[in-house]
Structures
1.
Amino acid sequence: MSQASIRAEFPRLNKATFYLTSPEDPLYNCIAWAADDTTRWWWPVDYPLQMTKAYWPANVERREDLAAFVAAFATLGYEPCADGALERGFEKVALFANAQRTPQHAAKQLPSGNWSSKLGVHEDISHTVYGLEGSQYGDVVQYLRRKIKNPSNQR
């Protein structure tokens, strides 16, 4: 997608700086990106247009609801937290959901405090967390955090 196309889909990015940080790649999606997995598509249900079966962690219910997404990230050591403020020693994920609280997107926090997202099959971008809120992904409804295993190698 061009920067103009991204700005058109996410109008709040018109008021913020964002950077393209990778080329398009249909192999992984935003949930996988936030989970540090660029080898497969994470989602609790399969869609006909996906090239392969969607991955979902074992022992997590395959439901498109917030509790299932929180449980999926819990398998990676994440737990709910109050906000997306940069917190030394922790890495964070923001879960976005629509008005019905159905998850639509996830972003991961960078060491700078900015956020990084995979836009579907398109590029990864660096952005402010609120830059992606709106009709496409909904709003941030849950922040998660986990301790960084090797603090000298922070995200």
2.
Amino acid sequence: MRRKSIDKRGIAAVFRGMAKLNAVQRAERVVTFLMGLRNPKIATAMASRGFRTEDLDEGFALLRKVTPSLIAPLPPGGLDETPMDAIARWSRTWLPIASIALRRRAPELATRLLDELEAVPTLAVPTFLDRLDALDQPKRKGAMSAMGIEARSLLASRGLTAEVLAEGRRTVDRVLLYAPVANPNDWSSTAFERADAELWSYYLEWSLVARLAIKERRLLRQLGFRQTTAGEKDEEG
């Protein structure tokens, strides 16, 4: 049986149900929605209604804006190795090896990947990893760029394998996750409410677009929706 299109009464019911959700529940809805977009059928349906990569990026950015108050400073002595220590160790170990491997054999790559990293030591690892990822972007859709393949192969031969690079990225992510808030007073309740409202406005727009664009109940459930027709009881919240 095909799902009926949601009508004005159905939209009103959706809004009433969602109004009952608290900030954490709303954020959970957004996460479920964004992760549901991994399904190619859902992504295709949403793309047909104007949903683009930048809209996906906006969702994650808005979600990130409602989380600063949840980030706490590291407890004194709470870890054997702090995230900053770990990233410094990765930098001391692998960036010199990358430099030695590239300077003679691939000077253009060396410049692209390593130039001026010494000037910003705290950003050296994420900058290096971001530059390396950028080399992988194809000039034509469908294949890694030749320069990216050359860089990965040469670095892997010196020990900078995909696993080691992934470890570097995880180390960078740990720094971002555990970095203390510089001034907790900067994150006021007003700022949180504004960020929460922006996130929820984004969700309301695209969730209603999804309800109109997608007909399969199974796909709607993957996005976190449980209402199946305009006339059925709203189960949101």
3.
Amino acid sequence: MTNDERRYVHGYDARESERLEAQASSVSDLLHADTSYAAGSLVLEVGCGTGAQTIALARNSPGARFVSFDRSRSSLAEAEAKVRASGFDNVELRRADLFAMPFAPRSFDHVFVCFVLEHLSKPVEALVLLERLLKTGGTITVFEGDHGSTYFHPESDAARKAIAAQVELQHRSGGNASIGRALYPLLVKAGFASVRVSPRVVYVDGSRPDLADRFTRKTFTAMVGGVRDSVIEAGIIEAAAFDAGVGALSRTAEPDGVFCYTFFKGVGITTVSRI
């Protein structure tokens, strides 16, 4: 992997950990309501981070066994604390790199990937590596967002510019913040069969103040706002313009505001054993 591929644009500080927790709690049903694995299944969770998705996976499939890995020691330590506090005994945490995984070919029944491909400059290559770990008939489940699907009221050019700045920063780091729309061709190109992709829309208005707080304010706006220093230092946008944009995004979380964002869930099957 290149240095750019190793760069997680959102950082690893406490603020980002809190944002991931807000995101997981606000869209858990949207992502996990129809994601479960049969008892006895061995499932690989790729890039588990601080364990925000790990807990939902373990809860939904208590009879399955999970191997959840990440390259960040600090994230893994936090994930381990979450798993231990939740009392789950069906999760094994490992430190590993996606492009140098220490797992045997055809050793997993299923693979789960959530918000990982967006940070890679070579997502197809990553998917090919993951396909090789699956037993014939095994499945991959991938979740990704798409910043191009962001709609809100009140409309704001300033907010659009702040979002665009974060998208550009991620692009310069080798990633793609709008990768959700490309899941179908990516999975097909990687060799998966029976690929199905479905949109998962988060719609927030004044009737859901809890979701406005957890998703609009503490997930999406916090994500954009969290790259402030990086986008300014990179010369992508001026400080005043960025701050105005983040302020406009926060405005959409008010009682008369509306915010809409689309995640995409992709599922594919391994049909031919290729080692």
